[in-house]
Amino acid sequence: MATTAETGSPTPDSAHPGTTNPDSIHPNSTHEAAAHAAPPAAAKPLRPGQISGLGIAAVVVTVVLWASAFVGIRAVGPSFSPGALTLGRLSVAAVVLGLVVLPQFRKAAAFPRGREWWPILAYGVMWFGGYNVALNAAEHMLDAGTAALLINVNPILVAVMAGIILKEGFPRWLIIGSLVAFGGVAVIALGSGQRSTADVAGVLLCLLAAALAAVSVIVQKPVLRKFPAAQATWFGIMVGAVCCLPFSGQLVAELQAAPLPATLGLVYLGVFPTAIAFTTWAYALSLIDAGRLAATTYLVPGTTILISWLVLGEIPTIWGLVGGMICLAGVSLTRRRSRPNSRQTPGPVAKPGA
Question: CA 243: distance to chain centroid?
Fold first, then answer.
């Protein structure tokens, strides 16, 4: 609006010759520019604390689909080895997401150039490749409770690295909420009805998966300032798929021997928890601080219990329900830091205008 008033200034001047042109135009354009500049300044403090409806939907979709992945992996695990399962998921995801992303390149050249490839290669290798292979292998050695407990070290690692590397700081309620949510995951793990059968290799693989995911979140965050979520996700999936090509022989052999339900489960894992969920995660990460978004993944174990109950008929234990409620409480505590920030920001803004 301000630019329109300025570019169109000669027409109003000729239409109203009795008015003084500089005095009549500049104050109005100044007030108009200030009026339009004010909303973005007021909206910025709300972004860390208040998420748009689309952002909330992206978080919910990510949590639910990632939780369903644990059920899917459990169902198809006997038919596919860790590397073949990863390559199969990424191949399906690359095709499905490619149908959405590739037509966009005709409208605008959006391929990364030069150094822009380095972070994409990093999280493509670490997250889409290494994380999935390590987690699939670890779940062959660990019981579900121990695996859930170890993987959920990831949000704490993300919060620490985001505070140091991305300069997000260490909000008090983020730390408190993360610890409470981690305690809920521990309750779920300890009450899973199984005693840990983990060996050293399984524990190390699970911790490796958590560390790779945490580093990948930090690396991916700046990429989302240059590329849309779907493109950034597709690039990473393609890199991960290339890294897993050595497992192509195993995948072909296991697909030939796998029953139809297992193959359909592999397709599901590629479409929903991979192509869709990683894209909604990237979209949410472009809107929300990495540390606070990672804390929402504490909801995955509890959601997994509910999905297992509905799909596999596995009745959750009382410990699982209690742990899930603790996780909900912990994640809600991580949101409390937004209120003090939103109240403190108007103070400094009001002083210059006084």
Answer: 22
pLDDT tens-digit readout, 51-90: 678 888 999 999 999 888 878 887 888 899 999 999 999 9
Contact assessment for residue 97 and residue 233, using Cβ atoms and an 8 Å cutoff: yes
Q: Please answer whether residues 322 and 187 qualify as being in contact, where contact means their C-beta atoms are separated by less than 8 angstroms.
A: yes
Q: Where are the alpha helices (DSSP H) in 116-224?
A: 117-123, 132-138, 144-151, 154-164, 172-190, 200-223
**Structure-block tokens of residue 338:** 């937004």
Instruction: Please write the tens of the pLDDT for every residue from 190-202.
Output: 665 554 555 677 7
Compute the distance between CA of residue 159 and CA of residue 179 in angstroms, rounded to an integer: 11
Distance between CA 58 and CA 284 in Å, rounded? 6
Can you give the pLDDT at residue 192? 58
Residue owning tokens 């400094």: 348
| Residue 234 · residue 99 · CB < 8 Å | no
Tokens of residue 74, six digits: 């459990």
Angle at CA of residue 334, ends 329 and 339, nearest 5°: 115
Q: What is the pTM of this model?
A: 0.72
- pLDDT for 198-229, tens place per residue? 567 777 888 899 899 999 999 999 999 999 99
Residue-by-residue DSSP string for 63-120: HHHHHHHHHHHHHHGGGS-HHHHHHHHHHHHHHHHHHHHTTHHHHS-----GGGHHHH
pLDDT one-digit tens code per residue, 166-180: 877 777 777 787 788
pLDDT exceeds 50 at position 12: no
For CA atoms 306, 311, 317, 320, the dihedral sign is: negative
Tell me the CA distances in angstroms from 153 to 111, 132, 159, 162, 174, one per residue in order: 34, 16, 10, 14, 14
What integer pLDDT is reported at residue 264 of this predicted model?
96
User: Left (φ > 0), alpha (ψ -120 to 50) or beta: where does 88 sit?
Assistant: alpha
CB burial of 113-134 (b: ≥16 within 10 Å; e: otherwise) equals: eeeeeebbbbbbbbbbbbbbbb
